[in-house]
Design brief:
Layout lengths: L7 E8 L5 H15 L2 E7 L5 E8 L8
Antiparallel strand pairs: 1-3, 2-3
Length: about 60
């Protein structure tokens, strides 16, 4: 059986500068629990903006018949 490298799907979420850490945590926790997203990268800018990149594995089903 041949093993393929992982294929990922990415999603970027931009959060405005007034967003609290608690609200950000709740948003990311909800995405992780319901849609299986995981944190890939978080960029925090000096003006308070956040850009979050989430990723999740894309599963390809192998044909059996």
């Amino acid at each position: 059986m041949e093993r393929r490298p992982a294929t990922w799907e990415f999603r970027e979420v931009s959060l405005p500068r007034g967003t609290s850490r608690e609200a950000t945590r709740q948003l990311l926790t909800g995405a992780a629990e319901t849609d299986h997203w995981e944190l890939d990268r978080l960029r925090l800018f000096p003006d308070g903006r956040r850009i979050v990149r989430l990723r999740r594995r894309v599963y390809r089903m192998a044909r059996t018949a």
